[in-house]
Design a protein that fits this description.
The protein is mostly helical. It is 70% helix and 0% strand. The protein is flat.
Length: 239
């Protein structure tokens, strides 16, 4: 990396990057201890129910897996690629996997914590409520996919290709959208296509969340649920 890209880097600039990486690793290890040590304590005291023990084991396992995945990702940026003279970078596939695993870990932790702290609402299973729940699950999947596509943008530095919006340069659909062969390779390895997909998915996510909010307004929901949907709408538009 020093010879190919950062040959003019000073020692203070290197230290800044090094300490960022070091802090990230130490923070990750602290998170791991924050899961495993209390889990062992609560388990030993008999405070965990049988279903909760399964969740705790899964969360602790996911924390360890996340750390291994981070090492596997970084390793891809250190490997010599004799057939490539490109800028050294980590694999966009491994970066997306690392981010996706982190999102799953965070979501599962939040879900578990809230299910323990807040009693579940017992609502009548109307047709409208069932549709709202299904639509919310679909919107969640779309948001997750959008975030993963952002990892591909970061991994390929695809944000540098076009920096105008809503058009990409002078066109709505760029000429080099399908420049790679086979066609499917463009979705994961062509910086233009990766940025294009991320834009489309981002717009689709905001649209879906707005529609979810408008649909939820037609259904009598508890105050806590309504606050959650409104917060989701606000955060989506800020993002």
């Amino acid at each position: 990396s020093f010879n190919s890209l950062n040959h003019d880097m000073t020692l203070p600039e290197f230290k800044f990057i090094w300490y960022m990486e070091y802090s990230h690793r130490m923070w990750g290890r602290a998170v791991g201890l924050a899961y495993i040590l209390p889990a062992a304590y609560f388990w030993r005291r008999g405070w965990l129910s049988r279903p909760l023990k399964g969740r705790v084991l899964a969360l602790c396992g996911l924390v360890c897996f996340q750390g291994l995945l981070g090492w596997y990702m970084v390793k891809s940026g250190l490997e010599e690629k004799p057939d490539s003279y490109d800028i050294p970078r980590v694999s966009q596939y491994r970066l997306a996997a690392h981010l996706g695993s982190a999102l799953l870990l965070y979501s599962a932790s939040l879900w578990t914590g809230l299910s323990l702290l807040l009693p579940q609402h017992k609502l009548p299973e109307t047709k409208q409520l069932l549709r709202l729940r299904q639509y919310a699950h679909g919107t969640t999947a779309l948001i997750f996919l959008t975030a993963l596509s952002g990892a591909f943008v970061a991994g390929l530095d695809a944000g540098l290709v076009y920096n105008s919006f809503p058009k990409m340069g002078e066109r709505w659909i760029p000429d080099d959208l399908l420049a790679f062969s086979p066609v499917l390779r463009n979705v994961f390895e062509n910086p233009t296509t990766v940025q294009f997909d991320h834009r489309i998915l981002g717009i689709a996510s905001v649209t879906a969340i707005t529609a979810l909010y408008l649909f939820s307004r037609k259904i009598p929901l508890p105050r806590r649920t309504r606050m959650a949907v409104t917060s989701l709408l606000a955060v989506a538009w800020v993002q």
